[in-house]
Amino acid sequence: MTQTVRTLMWLMLAVLAALVSYSGFRGYLGPELLLNFANTVYC
User: Fold this and answer.
1) Would you state the pLDDT for residue 11?
2) Whole-number Å distance between alpha carbons of 27 and 41
3) Cα dihedral 13, 15, 21, 23 in deg (nearest 10)
4) How far is CA 29 from the centre of its chain?
5) Residue 43 has what pLDDT?
6) Using one digit for the tens of pLDDT, what is the confidence trace for 21-39?
7) CA angle 11-15-19, nearest 5°?
8) Rg of the chain in Å (alpha carbons)
9) 30 or 19, greater pLDDT
10) Strand locations in 1-43 (E)
């Protein structure tokens, strides 16, 4: 494996990990979760 191919594979792996993390945080921090959290704090 050449250095360019190895670097490209690591870059694609990093992009995939970033997309999975972003979608996970987007799903976890949805509007209904934030509203429920705000209601439990203030009530």
Assistant:
1) 97
2) 21
3) -130
4) 11
5) 61
6) 998 887 777 777 777 877 8
7) 170
8) 18
9) 19
10) none
